[in-house]
């Protein structure tokens, strides 16, 4: 993990991110990876779509380098459960720092999670839609 005093240059040098994300150290997310468990354990490794998977937790910094991985969880495990397990064992987030995460993670001081059903960056979406309409008409 980065030191508590480190601020990534992507954040520091971009006025859209500074100072709002000055304490962000990267992104955290769960990912399903195909698995081949023994037949006695296949039921718990089956996800809601019926695939045999393991659910893994990954963290990366703003250079897209992995800073943390946790594997071995069955495909039916939730991201919240895996995150809580990681925090109880070896995921130590420096004081005052946080990860960006998706809405499936719990609200904690160490995670910046968007609110469900809220559209962010409306100005960018509006501009993109106008550009798309312009391209269709010309």
Question: How does this structure look, described?
Answer:
This protein has 138 residues and is of the alpha/beta class. The protein has one domain (9-137). The chain has helices spanning 9-12, 42-45, 79-89, 122-137, and strands at residues 24-34, 53-60, 66-74, 98-100, 111-112. It has a 5-stranded mixed beta sheet, covered by helices on one side. Strand 2 (53-60) and strand 3 (66-74) form a beta hairpin. The N and C termini lie far apart (50 Å). The model has no long low-confidence stretch (mean pLDDT 80).
Secondary structure elements and their pairing?
Blueprint: H1 9-12, E1 24-34, H2 42-45, E2 53-60, E3 66-74, H3 79-89, E4 98-100, E5 111-112, H4 122-137
Parallel strand pairs: 1-4, 4-5
Antiparallel strand pairs: 1-2, 2-3
Give the oligomeric state: single chain
Total discrete domains: 1
* Low-confidence regions: none
Strand content: 15-25%
- Give the overall form: elongated
**Average pLDDT over all residues:** 80
Rg, alpha carbons: 19 Å
Strand order of the largest sheet: 3-2-1-4-5
The biggest sheet amounts to: 5 strands, mixed
Measured as a percent range, the helix fraction is: 25-40%
Taken in chain order, the helices and strands follow as HEHEEHEEH
The beta-strand count equals 5
List the total number of helices: 4
Q: Distance between the terminal alpha carbons, to the nearest Å?
A: 50 Å
Structural class: alpha/beta
């Amino acid at each position: 993990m980065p030191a508590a005093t480190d601020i990534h240059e992507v954040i520091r040098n971009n006025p859209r991110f500074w100072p709002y994300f000055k304490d962000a150290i990267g992104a955290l997310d769960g990912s399903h990876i195909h698995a081949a468990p023994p037949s006695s354990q296949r039921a718990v490794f089956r996800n809601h779509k019926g695939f045999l998977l393991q659910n893994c937790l990954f963290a990366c910094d703003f250079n897209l380098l992995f800073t943390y991985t946790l594997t071995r969880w069955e495909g039916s495990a939730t991201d919240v459960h895996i995150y809580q397990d990681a925090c109880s064992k070896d995921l130590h987030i420096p004081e005052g720092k946080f990860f960006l995460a998706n809405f499936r993670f719990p609200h904690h001081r160490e995670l910046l999670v968007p609110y469900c059903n809220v559209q962010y960056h409306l100005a960018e979406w509006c501009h993109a839609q106008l550009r798309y309409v312009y391209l269709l008409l010309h």
